[in-house]
Amino acid sequence: MLSIREIAKKTGLSTATVSRALDSRFAGKVKESTRKRIMAVCDRGNYRPSITGRSFSMKKTYKVGMIFGSIERDLGNPLCGLFMRGVCDELQKTGYTAIVLHAAPPQDRGVIDLLRSQVADAYILGTSMISEPVLDSALRSDTSVISLGSAGQNCGLTGVRRNLEPAYRDIWSRIPASWSGRIAFCQARMSMADDKFSVLRRTAPAGFRCDRIGLEFPCLDFCFDRFSARTAAMSMLDRLAGYKLLWCGSDLTALGIKDALETAGLTAGKDIFLIGNDDLENLAGGIAMHPVLSTVDEHMEEYGRLAAAQAVNCIGRTAGEPMILNADYIVRDSFPYAPRKPVPANESNSGCHGKKYQKC
């Protein structure tokens, strides 16, 4: 097997230059032509640096742990897949790898055991998993802990927060004033969409009224949510048909309602307007289909990248302030209205997906 010294000898370079070229953290400091010479020798000898050896010498694992509380449901959701792709892509740029960890019940104990296990140099977990005992353990831990959640959630840890307000303000700016009282926010009754409805109410212009409709889903599972939403909507078609706009907590809820409306001869975007959340049509169909559902894109892949970058940046350093990731509204056929007035730059699709957030 080749060694760094042998590669240096074959290329006529110093061992320091070879080491930098083979370390993704410092490869950018080596000229491209030099790096190609080094990689050509490595390829001929089927060589890559040993992560185990580097871990031993640097006293690091070069791993970031993703802690899940319901791994079978989380990994069954393609939005989680997008998030994980962002995490993995970002970590691999810096020579780190992601490992998937399951917090065995009871959850508090499971999370604390993982934080103390030293199987990773940093951990990423949702704010819903951060109880007082978990927070206490995280603050006393030598490893970095990055939390994920919604803007405004105060969990005591740094991390990344998704902010729906810019997208929701954009949507409100497009709704005719005459529709007040004829708008309903639809969600599964047992879902966790309360934070979305809170943002909706907080961003509503003065005088606008929006009802809230809880749909009776037999279960909450990504694989069945569209069917569940259709079934629930079929039982209240007359009520739903009385609204101009149905603003939904997820794309699958919106698509299920759309399916139900079509059985009654009602067309989304013509007879009733629909808005979803997640941009699943674009994820599922790509260029093979024409997405029709107006929706909110929370940029899950970018969410993963920011979380991974935060995790690596905090290793061995004092944690900084949380980052905020702004959601964008995507206009499609199901609600194609233009804004009644221009939306200020900081409230529109400004593409600002990573600015500092003042408080966690």
Note down, in words, how this protein is organized:
With about 350 residues, the protein is α/β, with parallel strands linked by helices. The protein has three domains: about 5-50, no CATH class; about 65-165 and about 300-325, Rossmann fold (3-Layer(aba) Sandwich); about 165-295, Rossmann fold (3-Layer(aba) Sandwich), CATH 3.40.50.2300. Helices cover about 40% and strands about 15% of the residues. It contains 15 helices and 13 strands. It has helices at about 5-10, 15-20, 30-45, 50-60, 70-75, 80-95, 105-115, 130-140, 165-170, 195-205, 225-235, 235-240, 250-265, 280-285, 300-315; strands spanning about 65-70, 95-100, 120-125, 145-150, 160-165, 185-190, 210-215, 245-250, 275, 295, 325, 330, 355. Strands 2-1-3-4-5-11-13 form a seven-stranded mixed β-sheet, sandwiched between helices. α13 links the parallel β8 and β9. It starts with a helix and ends with a strand. The model is unreliable at about 345-360 (pLDDT under 50).
In short:
By secondary structure, the protein is an alpha/beta fold. Helix content is 39%, strand content 16%. It folds into three domains: 4-49, no CATH class; 63-163 and 300-323, Response regulator (Rossmann fold, 3-Layer(aba) Sandwich); 165-297, Rossmann fold (3-Layer(aba) Sandwich), CATH 3.40.50.2300.
What distinguishing features does this structure have?
360 residues; alpha/beta; Rossmann fold; four-stranded parallel sheet; 13 strands; 39% helix
